[in-house]
Each structure stands twice: as C-alpha cells, then as structure tokens.
Amino acid sequence: MAKMNPHLVGLDVGTTRVRVILAEVAGPERLEVVGVGTADSKGLRKGVVVNLDSAVESIKRATEMAEQMSGIPIEQVYVGLAGAHIKSYNSRGVVAVSRRNREIGVDDIRRVIDQASAVSVPSDREIVDVVPQEFTVDEQDGIGDPLGMLGMRLEVAVHIVTSPITAKQNIVTSVNRSGMIVLDTVLEPLAAAEAVLTEDEKEYGTALIDIGGETTKLAIYQRGAIRHTAVFPLGGNHFTNDIAVGLRTPVPEAERIKRQYGCALSHLLDENERQSMLEIPSVGGQAARPLSRYTLCEILQPRAEEIFSQIQEEIQRMGFDGQISSGLVLTGGGSLLPGVTEIAEQILDLPARRGGVPPAIGGLSDDIESPEYATALGLVLVGYKTRYSSVRSYLRGGSVLKRKASKLKEWIANIF
C-alpha cells in the first residue's frame, strides 16, 4: 500500500445540507469513519453557488464538526458536483496500436481515451470527467482493461460529464476559501453509486436515483459501467413547498410536518392513521387548523409521481426500458419520505430499495446509515480507489495529463 496520508475526506455540498465524512484506512479494502459533520447549506441554489460567503461559512461549520469529532485537521477533500446544469453523454474513440509487436501499452490506452474525449464543447463549458465504459480490441468488445493484450485496432466507449466553467470553479473556490485543497471533483450520482451499488447491480443493470433538496439525479449502470446520467430540477424541497403553499403554513413548519407525518402513498396508511388529525400552524399569527394525515399524503403523492414519471420518460427516451434487471436503488434525503420507494416501484414497474452502508465501512458507520450520506461516503471511496486501489489511473476517468492540466487551471484561477 502506498505511503500516503491515511485520512480521506468526502465533502458533499448540497443545496439543503453540507455533509462531511472523514475516514482513515484501516487495512486493504477497509475504511473506518472517524469524523462526521453536517451543517445547513446556505448560499447554494440547485447545486450552484449564488452567495460565496454563505457557502464558505456552511462548509466551515460542517468541516469543523468533523474535525472536533475526530481530532484530525482537514486539509484535502474530494468534492461532489451536482446541479441541473450538469450534462453528460457517451462518446467513442479508435486508434491503431502503435507498437510493432501489436502489444497494447499505456500510451495506446491514453491516446484512445483522449481521442474519445476530443469532442466539441461550448466555450462556456468544460469537461469535468471522462469515465471509460469498455474497450474493444479488433472487434472483441466488453474488455475492462486491454493493457498487455495483442491487437491492431483499439476502441473505447466513454461517458463524458460537462459543467459550466464558472459553476465548477465557484464550488472549488468556496472550498479553497474554507482553508482546504480540492483533490478532485466527482459527479455526485457516480460517487453515490460507489457507496450503495454492488458489483452485480452494476453488471446486470441498475438505476440509481438520488433525491436531493432541489434536484434528483439519475445514474444508469449496465455491464459494469456507467451508461447514462441525468439531473432533474425536482427534489425534497418541492414536497416541503407543496405543503407550505397548499396548507398556507410557514416553510419551517412545513418541513417539520413532512418529516414527522408525511407519506408519499396514501394507501400505506391504515384506517386509524388516515383519520388521525394534525394541527397545522397558520401564517400571520392566525389560529392553527386541523388536517387529517390522509389529506397531507394526498398533497405529497402527486409530486412523488411527477419525479418518477420524469425518470421513467428519461429511461425510455434513452432506450434502457427493459434493461434494468437489478431494479432501482434510492439515495438522498428525499428517499427517506415514507412511500417513496413504493411509488418508484409502481411507476417504473421495477423492484426498489434504499441504499445502505457497504460492509467495508466501519467506525462510526451507525452515524451515516441514512441515505443522506451516500454521496459523501462515495466520495471517500472514490478517494480510496484513487490513492490505493490497483485499478489503473486511466480507468478512473480521463488521462493523467488532463487531470493535471485541470488542477493547474484551478490553481491559477484561484490566484487571479
């Protein structure tokens, strides 16, 4: 194992909450969580920084909590990228093998990945990740790592993630101003998938659905690799707003009511629960009003149906209908609402479950059992693979040269 700092930090800067997980390497393929921090997220909207100072303060509060719990200062972090502005698509590249003996070398693999990455991107956007899906050697496809194989023609299929230049840089700047260095940025649904999906699920077809505060992220895996990602401008906060508007109650009270009494599927309520009455505070100091829990669920259910209907349309539009054999895995704070899993199963006609903590994670694992921590935990796992895994660098996303160039550009931008 490489002699490096044994501590890894995942930083999930969400629209609603900032979450930090600090873990240390306890052994091969074994991590121990030693620090957890959370704070209300301020200064972000739909995954984009709209107030830099507020975002910095939120990040500081969460990291300080993790530092106090662990007694370890946080200096370097892996950060998640999200937001409706994220766009991704698949691309292919092909090169001729350069060596005389036709043995595929590292240079050939990097050349073909760079060739697949040479796509036209608008001037206001940049490529933030290039994830190899599979290689093809002389028409033999499904190859995970072609190094050392013999062939004349090398092809690769990659998944390219793009983001507005300013959106990514503002997140990085917020972290830097909080006193930390960004080691890498990772698309949030890809990070969450590292935490909650099994290898079999990735192989046989799974849709990961991450329901955040203001966005819902979709990641489709098949044949062991990411095949499609999408972001929808709907999330858990929309449930809260529906309650606040529909019942004319303050937003903080709407959030409390959603968490304590909400259910996205009224059929799950028994007769007593349907008839139980809630006290709904009113705005402007008016008297509270009674409301049945059944009526509350009737307010929430259409929004849940809307979210999963959009996901269903996206899956059908991209041609993955009937190919998601392993079903659905739900993460994010929005997945905690009772009835959401059942609604997903009904609309998409697939088995669904909530994501949990992988068995390789120990320490304070009880503190991060909630699906809300899937992204931050996944960022830690990505960091572990980047530092210690035997998986070669070109299989982790993009070429080494491009990653170094990206970090140099970020460093220069932060100076000037």
Structural write-up:
- The protein is an alpha/beta fold.
- It has a domain at 87-162: Dna Ligase, domain 1.
- The protein has helices spanning 52-70, 106-117, 165-177, 188-196, 199-204, 236-247, 251-261, 271-275, 293-317, 340-348, 374-388, 400-415, and strands at 7-13, 17-27, 30-40, 44-45, 48-49, 76-81, 87-96, 125-137, 140-143, 153-164, 181-187, 206-211, 216-222, 225-232, 277-280, 289-292, 328-331, 352-354, 361-363.
- The chain has a six-stranded mixed sheet with strand order 11-6-1-2-3-19, sandwiched between helices. Strands 14-13-12-17-18 form a five-stranded mixed sheet, sandwiched between helices.
- Helix 4 (188-196) crosses helix 11 (374-388) and helix 6 packs antiparallel against helix 9 (293-317).
- The model is unreliable at 398-413 (pLDDT under 50).
Q: Would you tell me the overall average pLDDT?
A: 87
**Helical content, roughly?**
25-40%
The chain-level structural class is alpha/beta
CATH class of the domain at 87-162: Alpha Beta
Low-pLDDT runs of 5+ residues are 398-413
Beta content comes to 25-35%
Terminal residue distance? 38 Å
- Tell me how many strands there are: 19
Helix and strand layout, with pairings?
Blueprint: E1 7-13, E2 17-27, E3 30-40, E4 44-45, E5 48-49, H1 52-70, E6 76-81, E7 87-96, H2 106-117, E8 125-137, E9 140-143, E10 153-164, H3 165-177, E11 181-187, H4 188-196, H5 199-204, E12 206-211, E13 216-222, E14 225-232, H6 236-247, H7 251-261, H8 271-275, E15 277-280, E16 289-292, H9 293-317, E17 328-331, H10 340-348, E18 352-354, E19 361-363, H11 374-388, H12 400-415
Parallel strand pairs: 1-6, 3-19, 6-11, 12-17, 17-18
Antiparallel strand pairs: 1-2, 2-3, 4-5, 7-10, 8-9, 8-10, 12-13, 13-14, 15-16
